[in-house]
Amino acid sequence: MIYTIDLRFQHFYNPSGRIQLLGLFWFWTKEHCFTQGWKQEYPSTFEVHTVDMAMRCCCLLVLLVALGVCEASRSQEWAHHGASMFADLTPREMRNVRDYLQGKPELGLTAARGKDLKKNSILLMELHLPRKHEALRALDRGQAKPTRQARVVVQFGNQAQPNITEFIVSPLPFPTSYTGKTFKGDRPIRFESRPITVAEYSHIIDILQKITAKVHKVLFETTGGFSFHNCTDRCLTFSDIAPRGLESGERRTWIMLQKFVEGYFIHPVGFEVLVNHKDLDPERWTVEKVWYNGQYFDNVEELAERYEKGTLEKVQLPDHDDEDLYSTYIPRGHSNTRTDIHGPKLVEPQGPRYHVDGNFVEYAGWSFAFRVRSSAGLQIFDLRFNGERIAYEVSLQEAIAFYSGDTPAAMQTKYIDAGWAMGTVDYELAPGIDCPEIATFLDLHHYYDTDKPMRYKNALCVFEMTTGMPLRRHFNSNFQGGYNFFGGLENHVLVLRTTSTVYNYDYIWDFLFYQNGVMESRVSATGYIHATFFTPNGLHYGSKVYNYVLGNLHTHLIHYKVDLDIAGRENSFESMDLKYVNFTNPWSHKHSVVQSKLIKTQHQTERSAAFRFGKKFPRYVHFYNPNEKNKWGHQKGYRIQYNSHANSVLPRGWREENGISWSRYPLAVTRHKDSEPTSSSIYTQNDPWEPVVSFEDYIRNNENITNQDLVAWVTVGFLHVPHSEDIPNTATPGNAVGFFLRPFNFFDEDPSLSSRSTVIVRPDKEGKPKVQRWTPEVVGHCVTDKPFFYNGTYAGV
């Protein structure tokens, strides 16, 4: 009997917009047996001539293949299905949560933008993430997604004991309940630790008006005609410094004045004032100290009086406008680049090869969900390659910049940027500058210190780019003027990008996805340096970058959470180093061999996997699944490779260092806990002395980390000693740090072998180059109309 298995295919679009093939196969005997459908990546038709037993085996084989294909497809569908669990709150959800809470009379909420500080109002609203095990039910089993919830920070200022309270509001989009949220150890949130708001800034401006009115003559003569009090032209502005005090419970801020011109950050005028603004009645705010041109005064009146008497050292800044141009972007100097033509641009000859659906992205085997957390910034979830999860979460946690200097503002500056709602300052990206013109631009929405959702247009972009460097290549010479073959693969990567402009600095946040299963996390620093007034002693703490301007040295540290799930949740961690070994040469006994030997160290507890700055760091840090092996018997794993020259910023346990205890470690490995979601908080900036989130607590119990769900906490960064080339701005080259997630025996071979962008050239029998490729011969008129050509010969001339 002849049995025919006939596979017929038709194109269709699935909900994610990807073209797939729907296969239908029929089995015929004397009667029609059954019909079954499944998704298949390629067409095929074949016949089987066999007996009944062979037919049954064939049917089983086909079913097994179909089940494997179905499983991979189902995995991607579940990933797509679950991505919305991690999507940021929509404007509709934000408004509904606001209306719900404001409708609760027991909370007594009023508008956030009202100038009164004695009020109850919403400070921050963002997505509250589901518990990991609940999210995995949807991602790995296709079960119902957990209820969406909002995290809401409320400042209760209109009561006898003002406090900050966090609530979890659910379900979304139509909330019906709210419950209190606490931090690990039930640490209370001090009211003084709250981030500063627009309302509080308005009162700071008011008190500065009063202060500067008393020293108007001092400032006017010092700056060459600039003023703060009742100013309409040639005005002064200010920068406020944090943390706001020297111990927990304080709210005292050093404020320095600057010329209000483009790039005012590098126009200090030599006047700084310490304001105590702890009281919720601004009329009770006080001036505690004044600094002018290297001299301290107990109050503003003392400065004014001594200035009039001529008993202090005065300073007069240049008073002509040309001096103010150094901080602008206006071109100056001779250019050797042609200006009548544009530079190279990125193009997509046949359109994009990635797909974005809401917060879900697919590209070259990669898939992930993303969000931009208002309090901290960019995060990705459910990171998969070819359907296998690599990481559950890779997320930015904190960015700090700790400064040194001679002025009080400089020596007090220790910026902890989540305290400035780092995720909300992701402004519009410029096509062709911040991202290529071909990029997909997406809007972001935040609810922070506002009474309605704020839309940030085109604040995130996704694009594919060529690096201008091959991913792999080899020229195989025949050493006779010719070659045996040439092979190469162009290196394309997908980039997910947003920025944070935290006052003077601009951080460019990137996640990059390579074709060979490598993911890179990178931050590039640019923007204006934080500059203070120059004093001779200031040269111990930076460089003079302009007249009366000191660029202060500082260290940037960035902290990431990397929740790895390598071939499952049960992972272990080891480090690898090299050791020289010396032994007798087995084929020449009178000689010795000296070479490196690989030494592996299994880390079984959290303390043993917390590597301190200042100590030797392992050459390789490797996360692996002890229960899963690749084809060659190696445990499937990924390693973290650093691109960083970070170091600690303060001695262990020194005051403000308690709030950034994560900065002690380039790497710390802990067991995953839903109660340890972040390493920092929005309150650390203004109370680093007694932080509500203490990372050290995460490793203090020293739990076992063998065959467990592990989280890697990664610190990268760099020292920046400003120099004259930082005027007007710090440039990105050399100021980018980050890390790579690199497969280490996770695959059986390089997964980029599946890329059809490979080009192979071999000489034919006549010696002419024969090109083998799997993509269109001509790239496209936007790049070149000429087909690929390669000769490969070499000879003397």
Automatic annotation (TrEMBL):
Cofactor info, note text: Contains 1 topaquinone per subunit.
InterPro entries listed in its UniProt record: Cu_Am_Ox_Cu-bd (IPR049947), Cu_Am_ox_TPQ-bd (IPR049948), Cu_amine_oxidase (IPR000269), Cu_amine_oxidase_C (IPR015798), Cu_amine_oxidase_C_sf (IPR036460), Cu_amine_oxidase_N-reg (IPR016182), Cu_amine_oxidase_N2 (IPR015800), Cu_amine_oxidase_N3 (IPR015802)
Entry keyword annotation includes Metal-binding: yes
Modified residues (2',4',5'-topaquinone): 505
Record domain Copper amine oxidase catalytic: where: 345-753
A single cellular component GO annotation: plasma membrane
Copper amine oxidase N3-terminal domain boundaries: 194-294
PTM notes: Topaquinone (TPQ) is generated by copper-dependent autoxidation of a specific tyrosyl residue.
Keywords: Copper, Metal-binding, Oxidoreductase, TPQ
Enzyme Commission no: 1.4.3.-
Entry's Gene Ontology BP terms: amine metabolic process; response to antibiotic
Gene Ontology terms for molecular function: copper ion binding; diamine oxidase activity; primary methylamine oxidase activity; quinone binding
UniProt xrefs under Pfam families: Cu_amine_oxid, Cu_amine_oxidN2, Cu_amine_oxidN3
Domain of life: Eukaryota
Keyword Oxidoreductase part of the UniProt annotation: yes
Cofactor: Cu cation
Domain Copper amine oxidase N2-terminal residue range list: 104-177
Active-site residues, record numbering mapped to chain: 417, 505
Top-level class of the enzyme under EC nomenclature: oxidoreductase
Membership in a protein family: Belongs to the copper/topaquinone oxidase family.
Protein name, per record: Amine oxidase
Species: Coregonus suidteri
